[in-house]
Amino acid sequence: MVLRDASRLFLLFTVHCSLFTPFAHRMMAQTSSPDLTRARKVLRSVPLIDGHNDLPWRIRAEVKPPRDVAAYDLRQHTSGHTDLARLAEGQVGAQFWSVYVPGEFKDSGYARIQLEQIDIARRIISHSPDRLALALTAADIEREFRQHRIASLIGMEGGHVIENSLGALRVYYALGARYLTLTHNVTTDWADAALDSARHGGLTPFGREVVREMNRLGMLVDLSHVSPATMSAALDVTEAPVIFSHSAARALVDHPRNVPDSILQRLPANGGIVMVTFVPAFVSAEAAVVDLRHTAREKELKATVADTAERRRALEAWDKDNPQPRATLAQVADHIDHVRQVAGVDHVGIGSDFDGIDRVPIGLEDVSHFPDLLAELARRGWSDADLGKLAGGNLLRVLHQAEAVAQRLQRERQPSTKTIEELDRK
Ligand SMILES: [Zn+2]
């Protein structure tokens, strides 16, 4: 999820609708080439595992009626990026459904919203039992892929949702959450975010205890959205491979949400992966410039205009005068190639952020287009084996490893009863 407020989400709903004309969709479906044939063949033997899709938030906040999973009918062509027919066309084998919770409104009942988001995700999954199945382990993904159902995992976005409680973290795991992004856009009491001020130099002692407890549970540590110092601190303490569920390469696009080469270089030792995202502002340098100017303008308006409606109008006017350049599928492939070059082919994956983004790259308009991305890489010389690693093989390895670490740690130590007051002396 990259959108930052509900008003922006609502405005962009109209953009979504205009993108999905039936004609455009038919045109894409007809594209074929030997590379695409190869990509499709690979995806019949290895599950394509996407790291981040924001459908639960879309159903919660963007569509009417809100929170109504049955009304947002995935069996029909939806107004968003995701429905069952397009998931099948995109050969999606497993999906981390993001259960995003905004962190901007301090103490706004994060845990309640988190529980409701997990409820929405679980209702989405149980509403289509013939096509989707809740997955809690790597073995679940492998089994559901053989059964031709989309293995559905739950990924939490933003460490604020644990409300500084390791007990809450454990209960989220019990409800099915299999990753936690340590921050969203707001620095928490224990971890610095990429797009907020640094208050802790990375992780506090409690933040390090959160990572250790996640390792003990077998919940993946997700380092998208955090600052480079937090990435580094988490890599220092984690015993399991980490993931970046939706990020790109900082060397190609200098956006704070992207991963610097110095961190990519640490992934072989850790075993973790960067799941390259499709967010235009992270994959296109031209789009990043406009996005960062948008953020600066938003900040400026917050400081100078008291009325929220007036502020929103002013920002919308600014957006109209400063249209964001389109990103392309080839640029996404460039980021994948870069991560491969610096970290290695065992440390890259895919994390679209579909239904969490207002704009999409040309060629990656919705979930039906994943095979086109693999076809582009096939064209660039990737072998079938390497395409399989990118698509899902690497994530499966990471999850298997995290599960093995958890089994060992559960033999070695009890659930942590540490508190933030105790560790950070607040
Ligand atoms: Zn996000």
What does this structure look like?
The protein is an alpha/beta fold and 426 residues long. Helices cover 50% and strands 10% of the residues. The protein is built from 19 helices and nine strands. It has helices at residues 6-19, 22-30, 34-45, 55-62, 84-89, 110-127, 138-146, 166-174, 205-217, 228-237, 261-264, 267-270, 280-283, 285-304, 308-321, 329-343, 370-379, 384-412, 420-424, and strands at residues 48-53, 92-98, 132-134, 150-157, 177-181, 220-222, 243-247, 273-276, 348-350. Strands 1, 2, 3, 4, 5 and 6 form a six-stranded parallel beta sheet that branches. The longest helix has 29 residues, at 384-412. It is globular and about 60 Å long. Mean pLDDT is 93; it is low at 4-30. The structure holds zinc ion (ZN). Zinc ion binds next to loops.
Bound molecules: zinc ion
> Span between N and C termini?
31 Å
Taking Cα atoms only, what radius of gyration do you get, to the nearest Å? 20 Å
Q: N-to-C SSE series?
A: HHHEHHEHEHEHEHEHEHHEHHHHEHHH
Number of helices: 19
Strands, helices and their partners?
Blueprint lengths: L5 H14 L2 H9 L3 H12 L2 E6 L1 H8 L21 H6 L2 E7 L11 H18 L4 E3 L3 H9 L3 E8 L8 H9 L2 E5 L23 H13 L2 E3 L5 H10 L5 E5 L13 H4 L2 H4 L2 E4 L3 H4 L1 H20 L3 H14 L7 H15 L4 E3 L19 H10 L4 H29 L7 H5 L2
Parallel strand pairs: 1-2, 2-4, 3-4, 4-5, 5-6, 7-8, 8-9
Helix pairs in contact: 3-17, 3-18, 4-6, 8-9, 9-18, 14-15, 16-17
The protein binds zinc ion.
